[in-house]
Design goal:
161 residues; alpha/beta; two-stranded antiparallel sheet; 6 helices; 8 strands; 32% helix
């Protein structure tokens, strides 16, 4: 088995997530576990509030995995918690495929419409992203590693990536 040492999650990707116009972001990757581990490392190093939701554990802080939000195992409960939370955070969601259906789609549309100063982003991570049409249009796609592998280019006499 070959170990992958590709850098998938970079500070630049995290900045892109925070700077995204919408609040719903989708990342397709074949290396979900590696991507989550790199998000965990980024959260630990930067001190950013990054949470992970999965149906088995609910919402848990990536920096302190023992810190869990009680009663957040169902996606609808997790979405209500995220909607009510006023703190800045990035929420990563995995294993959500069979959960994105009514009434959860209404909560996702509501989250997508939020325009406040405290940034809250919801990042869906999957091998293949598939959403109902009403949600698909609201999800901004990003790709891990693409930012890290982008070649620098010369702009106004300076190298930018």
């Amino acid at each position: 088995m070959q170990e992958s040492t590709d850098v998938l999650v970079t500070p630049k990707l995290f900045e892109q997530i925070l700077g995204a116009e919408g609040n719903l972001i989708g990342i397709e990757t074949g290396q979900i576990d590696e991507t989550l581990e790199q998000f965990r490392q980024l959260a630990m190093r930067s001190g950013q509030s990054v949470y992970l939701w999965d149906p088995d554990n609910g919402i848990a802080a990536l920096r302190q995995s023992e810190l869990r939000i009680p009663g957040s195992k169902r996606l609808s409960d997790a979405l209500r918690f995220i909607l009510q939370s006023m703190q800045f955070a990035v929420y990563l969601l995995i294993d959500f495929d069979d959960q994105v259906k009514p009434p959860n789609t209404a909560l996702l549309r509501r989250f997508a419409r939020i325009r406040t100063g405290n940034q809250r982003k919801m990042v869906f991570i999957a091998r293949k992203l598939a959403f109902p049409q009403e949600i698909d249009a609201l999800v901004e796609r990003m790709s891990p590693g693409a930012v890290a592998n982008a070649r620098p280019r010369l702009r106004d006499g300076r190298w930018v990536s």
